[in-house]
Specification:
Phosphorylase Kinase, domain 1; Transferase(Phosphotransferase), domain 1; six-stranded antiparallel β-sheet; 9 helices; 57 strands; 37% strand
Length: 892
């Protein structure tokens, strides 16, 4: 039906299909708006029962007016097909948001209260849903739940309510069984008469799955599942997840009682119980946090004892290893200076191709190294950035990418592995901001095609395509949701049955691995299935030769996992620390497989530049200010200039720290134990700090009192929210989010409330001008970016200046400090370039001219801050980095 018109609704695309009909996205040509249309196919209209249920769905839902229930606009018929017109909801279904280990209790309670409130409204109007399940609940980009599909709604006994509506008679007689088996109540499974308590049981099943990641009742057949629902009790949720509050567990188990008389009797009472847990859990966790602070000394001592015990055990294990037993170990494969990345092994495992920025560290090119001998052979000499070489399974070609002058565009080329003429296949354009999370290429097992990341167009996430070597034709393989930045990191199993890929969730450090079954024609043979949760930020998957297991990188190490039989990831022991981009060769006669990976480590510190005043040249070269053996980023002076906030992983996990203005007496303020924690900004009164963290998987905005306390999640949204900052009056918090599918600037009341979109053009790191009239922000983070300005009340952005590196800018009353790099090339990530000419600039707002404050800043990282008196400027830079190739022999 795509392209057809039903009445005045033009069908644009298919959204989904179920037992009650097919759902399409359509355009209302009269009101010029998007709508969703559910169509009952003409060949099913002859089923009078199905048709009557279809009509009843529209009437049942249209009788309700609630923010958490889908709005029905119309019900119509054309050419023998009935269809319902309803509001079009941009977001994800609840089953897409539930991870294998479940949601955090905080997020689950938020959605559960909304769903309970909507069902209480429906029950009050005499309407029973009868098919409540995660796929029938949408979560909008703003974090609001919407119940869909009242297709099995049944009229309850009449009630004396102003909201009650007289509907047609029940269309399913007592004794029939309709609904989805896994979420049915016992009385529904038995075909008995139903009331509101049946929905309460189904609600309990949904809430159970939300917090545990598992259904309460499972079985190999519909009959077995229904039998368990009627006769067996579910496993207590706390046995599956220790983070579930005891009172929440009691609520879930009460909902799931077999005897309806022993459940909650009304959805309204259940909603109140959930709200009580939501409020009480906050105060309980605060007390727990205080207890943790009191016991931190004991925790440190216990950690020391455990480490000592492990070292002693490991030494004992090595002493008692039988003669001839082999312990796997990694050895350097390349120890040249500079950046060596993207390893790819030849089919026989004797050669490795990789990208290296050369002995002068001035330009990434493709090299081939024979394992165990000689110097690397340089294959490319182009002045552009050559990266991501992939060896074809037949050994004939290396495919690689070459950055073009246009930002985000790369050429896809082939070259013989031992040198020769290059052949350009096509160009790819990555728009979703995922160019810093390689790789983007994978060969098909028969070497006839490649899987590549490419753009679907402006405003859409990047997808994976199958590219034919013969015709250069590209066929779309994956269909990422709008909230994602895109799909990348493709890896095809050696037997060609599976594709594993990374779905980028909107931030550099937020992604999940999925597996997709493949058909013989390299097309999708099913739907993608989630393998890893977002909190792992898994990337760069690689298959083992048996097509039954993958390796991937996460955090600061390498992991392995059985696929397609889903299992728990296990970290590789004793090697793989700081490991990225693993690749495994095929085993050869007389030799097991080889593993090659990149050992990548960067040490970032905070540096200081001193000047005599705003815009004045530096009085001395940059000097080290705060350092450790771990990383320090995102420095930010307090409003009074007496203190400094910064992000660091010096305690083993990402967190926010406070120090005196001179860098002394650093203490942890918020230990989030999540790597993507940073961007602290002070409130105008200095009493609070907002920052972002991916502690709950996706990026969220948090606030923490500077006097100490528990960080509070301000956004709790499926999208990636980051780079928050206060308005000058302290009433608003600005932040960057991909809630509309693209990165935009938003704001939220500091006291809590709904988020408001400000810009229609992508951006990061918003900061309000000193007079509160404008919001400044950078357009992108993965390459030098324009600095834009938009009125605080909203409007059309205008460009202020070009070339800002990352989020390194500070807006003062008379001008703007920023960091740029004159030699930056379009489409090249700044970390891959030499850093000697990085400079601090001052843009005078009156003259519209820039002057240099300091040069030779080094390889800068995120955030620039200036003391209130304008004399001290701090920035973060990477002082040392290691990007070596490591080799593990006889890897099994």
């Amino acid at each position: 039906m795509i392209g057809q018109t039903l009445d005045h609704y033009r069908i644009e695309s298919k959204l989904g299909e179920g037992g009650m009909g097919v759902v399409y996205k359509a355009r209302d040509t009269h009101l010029d708006r998007w709508v969703a249309i559910k169509v009952l196919p003409a060949d099913k209209v002859a089923d009078s029962g199905r048709r009557q249920r279809f009509v009843q769905e529209a009437k049942a839902a249209s009788a309700l007016n609630h923010p958490n229930i889908v709005t029905i606009h119309d019900i119509r018929s054309q050419d023998g097909s009935d269809f319902i017109v309803m509001e079009y909801i941009e977001g994800r279904t609840l089953d897409e948001l539930i991870t294998p280990k479940g949601m955090s209790p905080t997020l689950a309670l938020k959605y559960a209260v909304q769903i309970a409130d909507a069902l209480a409204k429906a029950h009050g109007a005499g309407i029973l849903h009868r098919d409540l399940k995660p796929s029938n609940v949408m979560v909008t980009r703003e974090g609001r739940s919407k119940i869909l599909d009242f297709g099995l709604a049944k009229l309850l006994e009449p009630v004396d309510s102003a909201d009650a509506t007289t509907l047609t008679r029940p269309v399913t007689e007592e004794g029939s069984v309709m609904g989805t088996p896994a979420y049915m109540s016992p009385e529904q499974a038995d075909g008995r008469k139903l009331d509101a308590r049946s929905d309460i049981f189904s609600f309990g099943s949904v809430l159970y799955e939300m917090v545990t990641g598992r259904k309460p009742f499972t079985g190999d057949s519909r009959l077995l599942m229904l039998t368990k629902i009627v006769r067996e009790d579910p496993t207590p949720p706390s046995e599956l997840s220790s983070s579930i509050p005891p009172e929440l567990e009691r609520i879930i188990l009460r909902c799931l009682r077999k005897d309806a008389a022993r459940r909650y009797q009304t959805m309204a009472d259940l909603k109140v119980a959930l709200e009580d847990v939501e409020q009480e859990s906050g105060s309980v966790k605060q007390e727990q946090q205080a207890s943790l602070r009191r016991g931190w000394v004991w925790a440190v001592l216990m950690g020391v004892l455990l480490i000592a015990g492990f070292v002693a055990w490991r030494a004992w294990q090595m002493r008692r290893a039988p003669e001839g037993a082999e312990l796997l170990r990694s050895v350097p494969l390349s120890s040249s200076p500079g950046v060596a990345r993207y390893p790819s092994l030849s089919p026989d495992g004797n050669y490795v191709a990789y990208s290296w920025n050369g002995p002068q560290q001035n330009n990434p090119d493709i090299y081939v190294q024979q394992i165990g001998s000689g110097s690397p052979l340089r294959l490319t000499t182009d002045a552009s950035n050559d990266y991501n070489p992939i060896w074809s399974p037949d050994g004939r070609w290396l495919a690689f990418l070459r950055s073009q002058s246009q930002a985000g565009t790369s050429g896809l080329l082939l070259i013989p592995p031992l040198g020769g003429p290059e052949r350009k296949l096509t160009e790819i354009r990555v728009l979703g901001g995922i160019t810093v999370t390689p790789p983007h290429l994978a060969w098909c097992p028969d070497s006839s095609c490649l899987v590549v990341t490419d753009s679907l167009g402006e405003g859409k996430p990047d997808a994976l395509f199958v590219l034919s070597l013969e015709t250069a034709e590209k066929n779309q393989l994956t269909d990422p949701p709008l909230l994602a930045s895109g799909d990348t990191n493709p890896a095809i199993s050696p037997d060609g049955s599976w594709l594993v890929f990374r779905r980028q969730l909107g931030g550099v450090f937020n992604g999940e691995l999925y597996r997709l079954p493949l058909g013989k024609s390299m097309d999708a043979a099913g739907e993608p299935r989630l393998l890893t949760v977002a909190a792992m930020d898994a990337r760069s998957p690689a298959w083992m030769p048996d097509s039954k297991e993958i390796l991937f990188s996460s955090g600061e190490g390498l992991w392995r996992m059985l696929v397609p039989r889903d299992s728990t990831p296990v970290r590789l022991p004793f090697f793989g620390e700081n490991g990225l981009m693993p690749v495994v060769s095929r085993p050869q006669s007389g030799r097991a497989a080889r593993l090659v990976y990149v050992r990548s480590f960067q040490d970032a510190n905070i540096w200081r530049v001193e000047t005599s005043g705003p815009g004045a040249p530096a009085s001395s070269p940059p000097a080290l200010f705060i350092s450790s053996t771990r990383g320090e980023w995102f420095p930010e002076f307090s409003p009074d200039g007496r203190r400094l906030a910064f992000a660091s992983d010096r305690s083993g996990g990402g967190g926010i720290w406070l120090a005196e203005a001179d860098g002394s007496n650093a203490v942890a303020l918020a230990s989030m134990n999540a790597f993507a924690t940073g961007a602290p900004r002070w409130s105008p009164n200095g009493e609070g700090i907002v920052f972002h963290s991916n502690r709950e998987g996706q990026g969220e905005v948090y606030m923490v009192p500077t006097a100490g306390g528990k960080p509070r999640n301000l956004t709790s949204h499926p999208a990636t929210d980051s780079f928050p900052s206060f308005s000058r009056d302290g009433k608003w918090i600005y932040f960057s989010s991909n809630r509309t599918g693209e990165r935009r600037i938003w704001k939220i009341p500091a006291s809590g409330g709904d988020a408001v979109q400000i810009t229609n053009i992508g951006g990061y790191a918003p900061i309000e001008s000193p007079d509160g009239a404008y919001i400044y922000y950078v357009q992108t983070l993965d390459r030098p970016s324009p600095l834009l300005r938009v009125p605080a009340s909203g409007g059309v952005p205008v460009k202020v200046l070009d070339g800002v590196v990352l989020s390194n800018f500070v807006v003062r009353e008379g001008g703007i400090y920023y960091i740029n790099r004159p030699s930056d090339q379009g489409g090249v990530y700044y970390l891959d370039l030499p850093s000697g000419d990085t400079r601090l600039q001052y843009f005078d707002l009156a003259t519209r001219r820039s002057t240099t404050v300091a040069g030779n800043l080094g390889r800068v990282d995120n955030f620039l801050t200036v003391s209130p008196d304008g004399h001290t400027i701090l920035y973060s830079r990477m002082d040392s980095s290691v990007d070596d190739l490591m080799l593990v022999e006889n890897f099994r």
